[in-house]
Design goal:
Length: 433
């Protein structure tokens, strides 16, 4: 008889920064393998264990459990220098990621210095119309993947082969940088040498991770798939063009790891108890007032990757419902509930008004979403500090009512409630696997 499949996907249901890192770190204790499947080091996953903070950008958030194998799937775009830095930092912190513990897909596309230069130059040229990217070269790398001119980890395995390919591509990129973007060009030897330095660490960790994950799942191992960014930043289903350049939902788990859809068992959608977004683009429930400032300060809402202040606003059930539908979310993890302590009343957006119409979905055009007005309902707040709550029954009645209303609006149960940044500050209502 075939072994039962144990796979759980953790996916962001808003505009990223939902606290996926914390939840993945928590669930990694029960997992054999944690795999990233999209995005790159534009992500910033903050983990706090016994008061000590670690921020990961590229390595899966299972890294702090020394028995968990970390996999970087082929759908991830890889900045090799950033990867080496992160491996070294984790090694110093007591979490070594030797070749047995970190596997990098041979299929990952490489973020090269010209991708970052192009990303940053384009943002500067866009002026007020900028997307507000992280400047990490994510968009240009995915563009090259689709245009079939990208360099991959597999190319990095042989230095002579890599240099030949890089020489051809760099010539074209330098021409674009110089003639179109009016930027300085990149020196071939410098780029090649930087890549070669990183390749020394990466080569022993390169694997056919699609096959590895398939064999792990079909032999009964527990695999956790870790999403980056969030549903509204999905290049197809998000608030285009104010999105990232990858799919962030369930489809990306399969395309970004090579694991078949039928091996994906459970999807946990992560949502904050309010909403944030970083970068430009429409945000109907945004609070440009002292409540927004308070959420930012209490919630430490500053980008883990760029340090930018995050825009903050009320909870938006329209956004959540779309994320649930697109990714087939099974259960929710509600994060940062503690940040709402002291606010009264709490507003929840249940729909949008567009002119005389009431709509319950996200319009396709960013300009239209910019013009909608949220329809709010009011809920009572609470003043009790939630940090020490270990069970649902420890929460004040108003907080329990707030959760119950979000469950009703989502049509799904909340299985995890996070009441503080530390791993321990979590109420788990049932096992994830
Ligand atoms: P890019 O992914 O760097 O191209 O940025 C595109 C948009 O996605 C910008 O608005 C970024 O701020 C946003 N973004 C990218 N990664 C994250 C993330 O991990 N959390 C939140 N926003 C992100």
């Amino acid at each position: 008889m075939a072994a039962p499949v144990h796979s759980v996907v953790v996916i962001g249901c808003q505009w990223g920064d939902e606290g996926k890192g914390k939840i993945v770190d928590l669930l990694s204790a029960e997992a054999d393998i944690v795999a990233r499947f999209q995005g790159g080091n534009n992500a910033g996953h903050t983990l706090v264990v016994e008061g000590k903070q670690t921020v990961l950008h590229l390595i899966p958030s299972g890294a702090l459990h020394t028995k968990t194998v970390c996999v970087i799937g082929g759908g991830v775009v890889l900045d090799t220098t950033a990867l080496v830095q992160e491996v070294e930092q984790l090694g110093v912190a007591g979490f070594p990621l030797g070749p047995g513990r970190l596997l990098v897909s041979q299929d990952c596309h490489l973020i090269l210095p010209y991708h970052k230069a192009i990303d940053q130059a384009r943002e500067r040229r866009r002026g007020k119309g900028k997307i507000g990217t992280t400047g990490r070269g994510i968009g240009p790398t995915y563009e090259d993947k689709a245009a079939r001119v990208g360099l991959r980890v597999a190319d990095l395995l042989d230095e002579t082969h890599f240099r030949e390919r890089l020489r051809v591509v760099l010539e074209e990129k330098n021409s674009y940088l110089r003639n179109i973007l009016d930027e300085s060009v990149l020196d071939f030897d410098t780029v090649a040498a930087e890549l070669e330095r990183a390749a020394v660490l990466i080569r022993p960790r390169v694997a056919d991770t699609a096959r590895y994950l398939h064999e792990a799942l079909t032999s009964g191992k527990r695999v956790l798939f870790e999403g980056a960014q969030g549903a509204m930043l999905d290049v197809d289903h998000g608030t285009y063009p104010y999105v990232t350049s990858s799919n962030t939902g369930i489809g990306a788990v399969c395309s970004g790891t090579g694991v078949a859809a039928k091996l994906v068992r459970k999807v946990i959608g992560i949502t904050k108890a309010y909403t944030t977004r970083v970068g430009s683009g429409p945000f109907p429930t945004e609070l440009s007032n002292e409540i927004g400032d308070r959420l930012r300060n209490e919630g430490g809402e500053f980008g883990a990757t760029t340090g930018r202040p995050r825009r903050c606003g009320w909870f938006d059930a329209v956004v959540l419902r779309k994320a649930i539908r697109v990714s087939g979310v099974d259960v929710l993890a509600l994060t940062k509930l503690d940040v709402l302590t002291g606010l009264d009343p709490l507003l929840v957006c249940t729909g949008y008004r567009r002119g005389a119409d009431v709509i319950d979905d996200v319009p396709a055009l960013a300009e239209e979403l910019e013009r909608v007005t949220p329809i709010y309902e009011e809920h009572s707040g609470w003043t009790q500090d939630l940090g020490d709550c270990k069970r649902l029954s420890d929460l004040p009645p108003a907080a329990r009512k707030y959760i119950a209303r979000l469950e009703e609006l989502a049509g799904l149960p909340v299985e995890i409630v996070s009441v503080g940044p530390d791993r321990a500050a979590t109420i788990s209502l049932s096992p994830a696997f």
